[in-house]
Structures are given as structure tokens and as C-alpha cells.
Write a structure and sequence with these properties.
Elements: E1 2-3, H1 14-23, H2 35-48, E2 54-58, H3 61-72, E3 77-82, H4 86-89, H5 94-97, E4 102-105, H6 114-123, E5 131-138, H7 149-162, E6 165-169, H8 173-178, E7 195-199, E8 209-213, H9 222-228, H10 237-246, H11 251-272, E9 285-286, E10 289-291, H12 292-298, E11 302-303, E12 305-309, E13 314-320, H13 327-344
Parallel strand pairs: 1-11, 3-4, 3-5, 5-6, 6-7
Antiparallel strand pairs: 2-8, 7-8, 9-13, 10-13, 12-13
Helix pairs in contact: 1-10, 2-10, 11-13, 12-13
Length: 346
């Protein structure tokens, strides 16, 4: 049974596996203080065109978000996010468990704007409310939409005016910056946010994310927070060597581009059968609205995720392509879908 359920079902890109295997029994310094991490950091600084950013490698997305937010916010401060944000619906209350409220905003497309944030700031006017301090966004968003460069620039300008910090979750950043509709580049981000992370788990790595701190005020004693939150790996070189490979010969962006191209082909196939989408597909997460009878048939042969009920007869589901998805697998699904629609329709 082939999986379109997520973009991290395959283990690792062969370049990374080869590099790790080549280590053999070579000894390395621990806790991210090794030569591989040092080289990977320099490669990332070059890729984002920044000399002053501080980079830390962490094992996963949730622990990255938790560690950064816990480090930045005072006990009475809160983070603003879209209601669909990963920290709001897919992290088991990790942020709240650290003592920080999430102020979530209903959005039409998963994206935040100054206009959507303003009412939150007006409401939380004094010490009887939590104090909004951070704005959390992701690119792509949890529903696959992407921010334009101008949209993030507008957000950052507004955040600076209001004394807010802007943080971008980049679990799928490779897909965000290589999307067909995107005008955002990796080199833009140091000028547009206070911190962001470059996701590896969903872009060919075994595991791992590279957190990039731009704002100098966030850098002090960050490794202390990392250790306290359990996000420093003893064998940190295994993170460094993975990001070294991802940033060799532009592999990171090549994998993101491939992932998006496979999604675009899958989108065409679904649209050809007359089905619509919850939002316009822009990256590797697709949210088609399908009749329940068809979902039942698809689920006999493919793994997909249920997103939301539309009505009694139709449901929105999620299809994900990955860095390892092959065109042949998409074309096989095309033939399957044709037959399912023709032969199974009530």
C-alpha cells in the first residue's frame, strides 16, 4: 500500500546515508561541537547570505518550536498563530505545557496578516491578559499555501512597529521557496524574520532541523535552553553531516523542487476527474474534497489523511508528496483513480 499520508515516510536520501556510513568508527566531539556541524553551519550561512546569524541543530520540529518559544517568551507572554498552525493543532499542547498561551486566529488560507493580528493586540491591552510577544508562521502553511515575499515583509514591518517577534517554522521550507508561485528565496529570510528553521526531516534527512537565529537579542544563552529542553543531541555530528550533504550541490532545494513537481502532477490528475480543492494547491500538500465512497475505495490501496468533513457526503482529505516520490507512482495512481471513479461511483 503506497503512502501519500505524509512527506517523511521514506528514511533518508542516499547521499546522506552514504556520508553517515563512511564515518565508520571515527570519533567526534559531542553535543554539536564537531567539525561536521561547523562546516554545515558555514554552508547554511552562505546559502542564506548572512554572516551574523547563529545556527543550532535540533532533532525535530516540535522540539525546535518548543525550545525557541520557551527561550524567547517571559512567563506571562503568548504567541500568535493561525488556528491551523502546527503549534496549535499538532504538537499536543507542547507550547501551553511550557506555560505560554497560543492566541490562535481563524484565517481563510492559513496565513496571517497585520489586519488579522491587530484585534488581538487591541484586546490584550493590559496586565489582566497575557501579553502577545511572538507571531508564529510557517511556509508553506499547514494547508499548503505559501507566503509571498511582500506578505512576510508586511508582517515583519508590522511586528517591528508593535514590538513583536516574527518566527517562521520551516519544516517544509524547501518546498516553500521552490514552489511555482513563490518569489521568496532563502537569502530573503534573514531580512524578514527574527528567527526561522530549515527543515530536514521532511526534506530527505533521517531527522533534524537547523534553527537560524537572526535577532541578536535571541542568541544569548540559547544552548542552555536547548539542554534544559532536551534538544541537544550527544551525537550531534549526525545532524551536522546530514545538513552538510543537504547543502552540497544545492541538494536541499532540488529535493524541494522535485517534491512540488510531483504534487503538481498529482493535482492535475485529481482535477481532471472534476474534483475541487479546499484551497488552491501551491506546494506538496493537496487538500481535495472527495465523495466519501471514493475515499473508502482509495483507502483500500493508498494511505491518505482525513482533514475535515465538508458535508454528509463529502470530506476533505490530504495527499502529500515527498522528496522520494517517483513519477511512476503518481501515474499509477492516475490509472487507479480513473478506474475507481468509473467503476465504483454509486
Amino acid at each position: 500500500m503506497y503512502s501519500f499520508k505524509n512527506d517523511y515516510s521514506e528514511s533518508v536520501h542516499h547521499n546522506i546515508l552514504t556520508a553517515i556510513s563512511a564515518l565508520g568508527l571515527k570519533q567526534n566531539d559531542g553535543y554539536g561541537m564537531d567539525d561536521y556541524c561547523a562546516v554545515a553551519k558555514e554552508m547554511i550561512l552562505t546559502a542564506i547570505d548572512s554572516k551574523d546569524a547563529e545556527i543550532h541543530f535540533l532533532p525535530g520540529g516540535t522540539i525546535t518550536n518548543l525550545t525557541l518559544i520557551a527561550h524567547i517568551l517571559r512567563p506571562y507572554q503568548a504567541v500568535i498563530s493561525a488556528n491551523t498552525a502546527h503549534i496549535n493543532i499538532h504538537e499536543t499542547g507542547a507550547i501551553e505545557a511550557s506555560g505560554h498561551k497560543i492566541l490562535d486566529i481563524i484565517t481563510p488560507d492559513g496565513k496571517l496578516t497585520p489586519e488579522l493580528i491587530k484585534p488581538i493586540l487591541e484586546q490584550h491591552e493590559n496586565e489582566h491578559w497575557v501579553q502577545p510577544k511572538m507571531v508564529f508562521i510557517s511556509n508553506p502553511t499547514e494547508i499548503g499555501t505559501i507566503y509571498s515575499k511582500q506578505e512576510i515583509e508586511n508582517l515583519y514591518t508590522y511586528c517591528q512597529e508593535q514590538g513583536l517577534l516574527l518566527y517562521l517554522d520551516g519544516a517544509r521550507l524547501a518546498m516553500g521557496v521552490t514552489a511555482q508561485d513563490s518569489d521568496l528565496k532563502l537569502t530573503d529570510l534573514p531580512k524578514l524574520v527574527d528567527a526561522f528553521y530549515i527543515g530536514g526531516t521532511k526534506v530527505g534527512a533521517l531527522f533534524g532541523e537547523a534553527l537560524v537565529l537572526i535577532n541578536d537579542k535571541l542568541k544569548a544563552d540559547f544552548r542552555f535552553t536547548m539542554k534544559q529542553r532536551g534538544s541537544i543531541m550527544a551525537k550531534g555530528w549526525l545532524l551536522g553531516i546530514q545538513f552538510k550533504e543537504l547543502f552540497t550541490d544545492n541538494l536541499y532545494l532540488k529535493l524541494g523542487d522535485h517534491t512540488n513537481k510531483m504534487a503538481a502532477l498529482l493535482q492535475e490528475i485529481i482535477a481532471e476527474q472534476g474534483f475541487s480543492f479546499l484551497v488552491k494547491p501551491q506546494s506538496n500538500q493537496l487538500f481535495p474534497i472527495l465523495p466519501n465512497w471514493l475515499i473508502a475505495e482509495i483507502s483500500k490501496h493508498y494511505l491518505i489523511s482525513t482533514w475535515s468533513k465538508i458535508d454528509a457526503d463529502n470530506t476533505c482529505v490530504r495527499f502529500c508528496t515527498s522528496w522520494a516520490t517517483k513519477k511512476e507512482e503518481i501515474l499509477e495512481f492516475k490509472e487507479f483513480l480513473k478506474q475507481a471513479v468509473t467503476n465504483t461511483k454509486p
